[in-house]
Every structure is written in structure tokens, then in C-alpha cells.
Design goal:
By secondary structure, the chain is mainly alpha-helical. It is built from 11 helices and 8 strands. It has a two-stranded antiparallel ribbon with strand order 1-2. Strands 3-4 form a two-stranded antiparallel ribbon. It is globular, with a radius of gyration of 19 Å. This is Alkaline/neutral invertase.
């Protein structure tokens, strides 16, 4: 556990390229994927630790961290239509404990695309939040793990599913599933990726479509009682994967083309499909990778910076 200092958020501070997105893609700070995995790891640790003298102190620290982390993520990373409207109307330079705009986000920094992307029903955990910076991109892995770990509340989990259904063409297209949305291109691509020839627009980690994510989507669909979404995605994958020799990823806005540097016969593409099929055929398998909501996981604090370890 980190000691108290300047960085007092309960989230984990990370460098760029620290996750499945392992090249320069502007995810430095507090990426949703790492925070969701961290939350799940803490919950798993809590279940495995013995309630003895040696484990008691560690358990207390984990419980405290979980409360702070869940409150922080559900409050500051969550975005839906109402929250987007609230951020759009934020005042800036508020510094007291009564501040509404706690991260001093400048409304003009909200990208234009998110206003059209956000449906009236639906929502998601955005990519990153830190002082004066919000990364509004959608990241599939982080949102699916948030559902499976119960970092997302039941209402938020259903809203994520609503978003996927409403924005099917953008997030699924012709091959599930977009690793991130939207893409970086032109000047933004040059600055953020360093002109990375692999992460060109709608390719690889820059808006590419990854079949391996199919099992995570399927698990999230089953947990939220929306198996029809998973079935639709699996049908899409089945129409291409075998014929295309199980590529690593697909390119293009709709995921129509085999990735320009995609390796063929990828084990995780095959495994992702098989696990998805097995879970859909026998939903009881979900229990191996999903945690139910902890009813005691209610926020004990009112400010994300008020926790100590």
C-alpha cells in the first residue's frame, strides 16, 4: 500500500503502455483497465486471506482501500448523459471542499465526438481521470472487468450494456470487439503515439478490433442478463475467424479487414472464442471469473483524497 503523500487518490498511478495497450497511446495516469483489474485483485485477495492475527491488518487495509476505490471510480470515472451535461456546465478554479468540479476539468476540453456518441440511455467508465484531464475514450477491457468485478453497480453495468447496444456499429461493427474508441489520427496521432506505424488509425491498439475480447464481452452479457448481445457478437465472429485463420486483430472503422500486422492462428483469439461459446452454452461457468456485488461496499468517505494507508 502506498504511503500518504502528494498522490492521495485510491487509484494506481501508471506509466503509458502499462496494460494490454502496451505502446504509447496516452493512457498514463490512472487508466480504467488497471483500476478495474486492481479492484478485482483486491477483492480476490480479501476472499483468500485468513482471518487470523497475521491477516487481520492486511484485511482491514484492503477493505479501506476497496471502499475508497469504489467510491472514487463510481463517482469520477462514470459518464452518462446527465454526467456529461453536468461536466459541460462545470465552473472552473474551484478549490474548497465544496467544489463540484473536483479535478478542475475545463469544459472546452471535452472532445466533440463524445456529445454525439453518448446515448440518452447508457453510460461507461471513461479511460482516465486526473487533475485537469479526462480521457473520454471507451476501453472495452476496463468496462467489462468493471462489470465482472462488481466495480460497476448493477445500474452502471446495465447502462454499459445499453451503450454497447446503442453504439453497436462503433464498438462492435463487423468484428467484436473494439479495444478502444475512437481513434487518434493526424496531428493527435503524431503527438500521442510518436508516429507509431503499428498504431495508425483504426488499427491495433488505436481503435482496432480484437477477437480475444469476445469472452469478456460474453461474460459481462451473461452477468447482466443480456445473453442475446453475446450471441449476436459470437455469430459475427464465427462468420470470419476460421476463414481468416484466427488473426490477432482486425483493422478499419468497422473491423472489416484483417490487421495489417496481425499474426495468424493466435492462441488467444481461438481461446477467447471457445470460452465465449462455453459460457453461453453453460452460464454456470461465469462463477469462475465473476464476483457478485458486495452489499457492504458502501462509500464510507465523501472525498476521494481523505483516505490513508
Amino acid at each position: 500500500m502506498p504511503l500518504e503523500g502528494f498522490d492521495t487518490f485510491p487509484t494506481l498511478l501508471c506509466a503509458d503502455g502499462c496494460s494490454m495497450v502496451d505502446r504509447r497511446m496516452g493512457i498514463y495516469g490512472y487508466p480504467i483497465e488497471i483500476q478495474a483489474l486492481f479492484f478485482m485483485a483486491l477483492r480476490c485477495a480479501l476472499a483468500m486471506l485468513k482471518q487470523d492475527a497475521e491477516g487481520k491488518e492486511c484485511i482491514e487495509r484492503i477493505v479501506k482501500r476497496l471502499h475508497a476505490l469504489s467510491y472514487h471510480m463510481r463517482s469520477y470515472f462514470w459518464l452518462d448523459f446527465q454526467q456529461l451535461n453536468d461536466i459541460y456546465r462545470y465552473k472552473t478554479e474551484e478549490y474548497s471542499h465544496t467544489a463540484v468540479n473536483k479535478f478542475n476539468v475545463i469544459p472546452d476540453s471535452i472532445p466533440d465526438w463524445v456529445f454525439d456518441f453518448m446515448p440518452t440511455r447508457g453510460g461507461y467508465f471513461i479511460g482516465n481521470v486526473s487533475p485537469a484531464r479526462m480521457d473520454f475514450r471507451w476501453f472495452a477491457l476496463g468496462n467489462c472487468v468493471a462489470i465482472l468485478s462488481s466495480l460497476a453497480t448493477p445500474e452502471q453495468s446495465m447502462a454499459i450494456m445499453d451503450l454497447i447496444e446503442s453504439r453497436w456499429e462503433e464498438l462492435v461493427g463487423e468484428m467484436p470487439l473494439k479495444i478502444s474508441y475512437p481513434t487518434f489520427e493526424n496531428h493527435e496521432w503524431r503527438i500521442i503515439t510518436g508516429c507509431d506505424p503499428k498504431n495508425t488509425r483504426w488499427s491495433y491498439h488505436n481503435g482496432g478490433s480484437w477477437p480475444v475480447l469476445l469472452w469478456l464481452l460474453t461474460a459481462a452479457c451473461i452477468k447482466t442478463g443480456r445473453p442475446q448481445i453475446a450471441r449476436r457478437a459470437i455469430d459475427l465472429a464465427e462468420s470470419r475467424l476460421l476463414k481468416d485463420s484466427w488473426p490477432e486483430y482486425y483493422d478499419g472503422k468497422l473491423g472489416r479487414y484483417v490487421g495489417k500486422q496481425a499474426r495468424k492462428f493466435q492462441t488467444w483469439s481461438i481461446a477467447g472464442y471457445l470460452v465465449a461459446k462455453m459460457m453461453l452454452e453453460d452460464p454456470s461457468h461465469l462463477g469462475m471469473i465473476s464476483l457478485e456485488e458486495d452489499r457492504q461496499m458502501k462509500p464510507l468517505i465523501k472525498r476521494s483524497s481523505s483516505w490513508t494507508c
